[in-house]
Amino acid sequence: VQLQASGGGLVQPGGSLRLSCAASGNRVNFMGWYRQTPGDQRELVASVTSGGTIRYADSVKGRFTISRDNAKNTVYLQMNSLKVEDTAVYYCNAKQVGIVVYEYWGQGTKVTVSS
To answer: What is residue 71's predicted lDDT score, i.e. its pLDDT?
Structure first.
């Protein structure tokens, strides 16, 4: 499975960005977005399973929306009301969950929120 992420960039506080991540190869059960800032651990931002179960970090609830197109094996992250503290490198993540869990990471896309 290969993950191709896109959509990062520079935006002013209060602005919006949309991230996309397309998975090629086998179907995956779980897709999500993590983010990381220098010196910190990677943290889960939002995730969605193939069955539609969605999870958000408390810091983004009400501002970010994750969605998934199962037919395209693609996950989207709509980020609204962006804050300076949302600045990070965002990584797409996918998992195939079975007897063995296989995990995959995208290349990371930089999101900078600054005036």
So the answer is: 85
